[in-house]
UniProtKB/TrEMBL annotation, chain A:
Record protein name field: J domain-containing protein
Source taxon at top rank: Eukaryota
Keyword ATP-binding applies: no
Signal sequence bounds: none
From TrEMBL, chain B:
Chain ranges of the NIF system FeS cluster assembly NifU N-terminal domain: 30-135
Species annotation: Somion occarium
Signal peptide (from-to): none
Name of protein: NIF system FeS cluster assembly NifU N-terminal domain-containing protein
Record-linked CDD domains: IscU_like (cd06664)
Membrane spanning stretches: none
Upper classification of the organism: Eukaryota, Fungi, Dikarya, Basidiomycota, Agaricomycotina
Length: 170, 147
């Protein structure tokens, strides 16, 4: 059973567009059924199954809740990626990402970092919209490119949030 | 155009799942050499990118969202006289970059091109899952030598 189906979402027509506000209550409902506490003390065989089901539900919830994880999950489900893909980067994207990361590193005030973070957030939102449109037309290689870009943008947001501490980078 | 032999196994290694901090580096069984290059990386910084004898290479690691910059200054004899790198990424990427810069300093472009990704991984004793980080560094170095 796929993640969407677990929470009563339909995979078609657009598996990327799910009603996020509905996810939390559905997750809560599903998890109470298989919560380990509820089954504690019952027969041994069931305990393992319950553990495995609740872990799966947690993973499913986490994956669907985050746009990037959701996009990657869809790509896996469509057989577009398995693991460790040979993705070709767009040199301009890498340059922009590098500049943003260096700007954060060299920033001297919180305001500067907030500005970078704000501009980056706009790009993140654009990227999420793009993924939605690409999934709608099943342009899987387009989705892969867009999800990769989103990954890099996330890195920028993480670095901005950590500032002035660095994210293990030099 | 010369391209380093990037082994499929290296590229197909499982992508890094989470960021690395210094303590988990030890917990995950990283070799001392990696930790040394991570805690005290050599040649961190930038060269003036508009200098005519400076070459700049950028590479991303899409699996983990890391980006790396490698710059070399080449003298009139085709020897790499200075190297600087900046890496925003995981410990292995940093360690690989640091090691690579030490390795290529003073080498001719031809000799630098010959460095294999596997050498980096072996020298730093990187666990297989981290090979893709070092391959990115190696790849960048080679295409930089080409240009």
């Amino acid at each position: 059973m796929g993640y969407h189906e677990m929470f009563g979402f339909t995979y078609e027509p657009n598996p990327f567009d799910i009603d996020i506000s509905a996810l939390r209550p559905r997750f809560r409902k599903a998890i109470t059924v298989v919560h380990p506490d509820r089954w504690a003390g019952r027969d041994e065989g069931k305990e393992q199954l319950i553990q495995s089901l609740s872990t799966t539900l947690n993973n499913a919830n986490r994956t669907l809740a985050d746009p990037l994880q959701r996009a990657l999950y869809i790509l896996k489900r469509e057989g577009v990626i398995t693991d460790g893909e040979n993705i070709v980067d767009d040199p301009e994207l890498i340059m922009d990402v590098m500049e943003s990361r260096e700007a954060i590193e060299n920033a001297e005030t919180q305001e500067e970092v907030n500005q970078i973070r704000k501009e980056n957030q706009e790009k993140v939102e654009e990227s999420v919209h793009e993924i939605s449109k690409l999934v709608a037309v099943k342009d899987w290689s387009g989705v892969l490119t867009a999800a990769t870009k989103l990954k890099y943008l996330r890195g920028i947001d993480d670095a901005a949030r950590e500032w002035p501490r660095s994210l293990h980078d030099h | 155009m010369f391209r380093s032999a990037i082994s499929k196994t290296v590229l197909n290694a499982a992508p890094r799942a989470s960021r690395v901090t210094a303590r988990p580096l030890l917990a995950r069984g990283y070799h001392e050499k990696v930790i040394s290059h991570y805690e005290k990386p050599r040649n961190v910084g930038s060269l003036p990118k508009n200098d005519i004898d400076v070459g700049t290479g950028l590479v991303g690691a899409p699996a983990c969202g890391d980006v790396m910059k490698l710059q070399i200054r080449v003298d009139e004899n085709g020897v790499i006289s200075d190297v600087k790198f900046k890496t925003f990424g995981c410990g292995s990427a940093i360690a690989s970059s640091s090691y690579m810069t030490e390795r290529v300093k003073g080498l001719s472009l031809e000799d630098a091109e010959k460095i294999k990704n596997t050498e980096i991984a072996k020298e730093l004793c990187l666990p297989p899952v981290k090979l893709h980080c070092s391959s990115n560094v190696g790849r960048r170095c080679h295409s930089l030598c080409d240009s």
